[in-house]
Amino acid sequence: MLSKNDYLHPRDEIMQTMDRIYRYRMTTTSGGNLSIRDEAGDIWITPARVDKGNLSRNDIICVRSDGTVEGPHPPSSEFPFHKAIYDARSDIQAIVHAHPVALVAFSICQAVPNTRLFHQTHSVSGKVGFAPYACPGSQQLGSNIADSFAQGCDSVILENHGVVVGAESLARAFERFEAFEFAGKTLIKASKLGNVNYLDDSQLELAANRSVDLPTFERSTANQQERELRKQLCDFIRRGCRQRLLISTEGSFSARLDQDSFLITPTQQDRESLTIDDFVLVHEGSRESGKKASRAVMAHRAIYQKHPSVKAIVFAHPVNATAFSVTDSNLDTRTIPESYVFLRDVGRVPYGVQYHNNSQIAEHISASSPAALLENDGVLVTGSSVLDAFDRLEVLEATSEAVINATSIGKVSSMPQTVIDELRAAFQLK
């Protein structure tokens, strides 16, 4: 079955992907390059010396298999290493190279992020490697990078340079690039909190092998409530991706329709590109025909069944809050009034609880504890509406970032119990 990107011309796919990378601040105006090798063996690539934040489809260059160049600009100066990777790996059809700040930090320390922080990053990033320095644009750099890919690497740190990833499609290469940078950012943040916990093989297998096979039903016309919730979910997920509260390959968001019906994100689809018809209706444990619900669907259902007041649920991986989830550090929300009022005390869920198709995950959420850290798997946030859940997710991430930043300044000063009691009374907190 063809994906949405299979209908895009390479010019448009490269332009749209570079726009996303630049918008996410994962490269600079002059930095980075993308390419696609098409079915004829021609290589489509970003041009040299053209503003990456303002590319048009006509700026994209085609280097034909016979070496002729078509387009208004010269191809990227890094074309030699793109060509070297394609020559070394017949399975790679797209490449992303850029200078995202976290992976650049690793590159100038001659280190590679350990992606065993959580299952999705480890799976999506593939085999990671390191290529020794050589002058940008040189044949030697191409040889160094191609050697790493020839050894089976999929995501490669370039010494004192940046990162390059390859995959079977540009959509997949972007996901790999994003997940690898996310691992790097999380590690940097987590290192300020204490020892980082990594997943062993059995823990990775627990996450990778979980599956949900819901029965299906044929649905009828959507009512106005469902249409409204589809629009809200679509808008807030897109906002969450752009604010880096969600990443394209991970996270789920749902909204309750009635006692045992809710809408939820689909599995294995780019979160930012979701449209209103992509969300999956789940009714009495069955999914609407023709769609696959998130693998977290049973955890969502368990929470809804136990907590009637919950109307929306988010499982997400915002970097700073996730940094707390991969360490043993507790997140202190008694820092400013907003943090405590919105979050109360944030608990910690042992690793893997949310993967089991039982109701145990629902025990870790309550009206007085609407958010939780999932050990080595981000955060869980609930709310009385889609807006409320998203707002709470924002506050959780902002609080986490503020606390991490505070560790560089001095000792974190928590509000005393008298202030907490005052807040609980003033805002009628349970």
UniProtKB/TrEMBL annotation:
<dbReference type="InterPro" id="IPR036409">
    <property type="entry name" value="Aldolase_II/adducin_N_sf"/>
</dbReference>
<keyword id="KW-0456">Lyase</keyword>
<feature type="domain" description="Class II aldolase/adducin N-terminal">
    <location>
        <begin position="12"/>
        <end position="188"/>
    </location>
</feature>
<dbReference type="GO" id="GO:0046872">
    <property type="term" value="F:metal ion binding"/>
</dbReference>
<dbReference type="GO" id="GO:0005829">
    <property type="term" value="C:cytosol"/>
</dbReference>
<dbReference type="GO" id="GO:0019323">
    <property type="term" value="P:pentose catabolic process"/>
</dbReference>
<dbReference type="GO" id="GO:0008738">
    <property type="term" value="F:L-fuculose-phosphate aldolase activity"/>
</dbReference>
<dbReference type="Pfam" id="PF00596">
    <property type="entry name" value="Aldolase_II"/>
</dbReference>
<dbReference type="InterPro" id="IPR001303">
    <property type="entry name" value="Aldolase_II/adducin_N"/>
</dbReference>
<dbReference type="InterPro" id="IPR050197">
    <property type="entry name" value="Aldolase_class_II_sugar_metab"/>
</dbReference>
<protein>
    <submittedName>
        <fullName>L-fuculose phosphate aldolase</fullName>
        <ecNumber>4.1.2.17</ecNumber>
    </submittedName>
</protein>
<feature type="domain" description="Class II aldolase/adducin N-terminal">
    <location>
        <begin position="231"/>
        <end position="404"/>
    </location>
</feature>
<keyword id="KW-0479">Metal-binding</keyword>
